[in-house]
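Quick one, probably user error.
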């Protein structure tokens, strides 16, 4: 027996005999694993066993296997956030002097990341990917990366990922797709020619607004190429969050079906409301890429809807206050329907004139549909919309 201060550091910490095959995976928060000797260190350091948490973790690996399966990829990096996944990928693929073509309608903070890339000497062209000619004109012989989302925020414009990938590949460029808004239940971008698919797991994968994470899925060779930036930028997710995401992914198909079905019903109902000037959702026949969406989406049209009402900030606030179910949150993709106001989200970064060019105005409201009963959502929206002219 050792003395008390020594004993208490070791007492009860050994693996529990018989604790095998639990119904849910165990959580492995350990930052490191015990190494037998210097030969065992070499074995571990060459990927032979778990060794150091930033390098590899059983919960991240389990989650990676599930996401690779859903995306028809070979391997997945599990990151600390969607932005961690995006920065790991682009910083891993691009170097000083390289050229990249980015869709101009993408997540605002990804646009801000471009400034960092430019600071490192990467040349970036920002173009409209819904205009294939404009996209092709931006491609150069030395373009290394093409970056896009499939449903663009907030006007829900749909990108023809097959056509974009074909052109990009004819220049030898790598196609990176952030599919956060679409999820693998709507489209699997790798099947349409994309090389890398990224998600903010904070959104539909997590689904309960209680976890932050990101993923990068691709071929094993491509993941091997990106892995050094992942490890060196320190973008790996903690075990508890990875475990929560492992839990959430089991119900993702059920949640997505309900949320995607609700989006179609809510979009249809909003289109009939006289207070609304325009509803943006790819399920609607008047959506500019409705046909394309029908061709490339395997289920639903995304759970993101935007709509235009009168440009009056006070009334937008009154509308938000009147809503009984739907809450205003700085996120999306949860099981409960949420609302966002793009003009407010971008007010600090862009002038009113710039926002107008992006199709964003005071009266633009974005909804992320949850899994409530659709009739309740429609009634809630319709009663709150009464505040507008
Ligand atoms: N990509 C898209 C399309 C997003 O909407 C977001 C966040 O809203 C991100 C990436 C960033 O994800 P995270 O907040 O997990 O870093």
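Nope, works fine. Designed sequence:
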């Amino acid at each position: 027996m050792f003395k008390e201060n020594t004993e208490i550091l070791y007492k009860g910490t050994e693996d529990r005999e018989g604790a095998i095959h639990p119904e849910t995976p165990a959580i492995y928060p350990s930052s490191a694993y015990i190494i037998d000797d210097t030969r065992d260190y070499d074995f571990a350091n060459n990927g032979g066993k778990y060794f150091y948490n930033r390098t590899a973790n059983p919960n991240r690996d389990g989650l990676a296997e599930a996401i690779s399966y859903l995306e028809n990829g070979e391997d997945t990096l599990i990151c600390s956030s969607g932005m961690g996944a995006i920065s790991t990928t682009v910083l891993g693929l691009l170097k000083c002097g390289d050229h990249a073509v980015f869709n101009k309608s993408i997540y605002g903070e990804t646009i801000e990341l471009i400034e960092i890339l430019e600071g490192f000497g990467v040349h970036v062209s920002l173009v409209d990917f819904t205009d294939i000619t404009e996209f092709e004109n931006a491609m150069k012989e030395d373009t290394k990366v093409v970056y896009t989302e499939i449903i663009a925020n907030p006007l829900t414009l749909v990108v023809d990922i097959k056509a974009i990938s074909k052109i990009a590949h004819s220049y030898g460029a790598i196609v990176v797709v952030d599919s956060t808004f679409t999820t693998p239940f709507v489209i699997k971008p790798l099947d349409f020619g994309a090389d890398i698919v990224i998600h903010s797991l904070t959104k539909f994968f997590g689904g309960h607004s209680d976890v932050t994470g990101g993923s990068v899925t691709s071929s094993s060779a491509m993941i091997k190429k990106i892995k050094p930036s992942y490890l060196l930028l320190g973008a790996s997710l903690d075990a508890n969050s990875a475990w929560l995401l492992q839990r959430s992914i089991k119900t993702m198909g059920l949640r997505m079906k309900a949320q995607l079905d609700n989006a179609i019903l809510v979009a249809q109902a909003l289109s009939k409301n006289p207070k609304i000037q325009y509803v943006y959702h790819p399920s609607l026949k008047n959506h500019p890429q409705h046909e394309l969406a029908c061709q490339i989406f395997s289920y639903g049209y995304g759970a993101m809807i935007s709509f235009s009402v009168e440009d009056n900030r006070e009334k937008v606030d009154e509308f938000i206050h009147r809503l009984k179910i739907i809450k205003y949150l700085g996120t999306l993709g949860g099981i409960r329907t949420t609302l966002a106001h793009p003009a407010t989200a971008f007010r600090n970064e862009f002038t009113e004139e710039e926002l107008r060019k992006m199709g964003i105005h005071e009266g633009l409201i974005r909804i992320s549909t949850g899994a409530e009963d659709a009739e309740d959502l429609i009634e809630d929206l319709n009663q709150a919309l009464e505040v507008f002219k």
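Residues 81-83, 107, 149, 178, 180-181, 200, 202, 212, 214 surround pyridoxal-5'-phosphate (CB under 6 Å).
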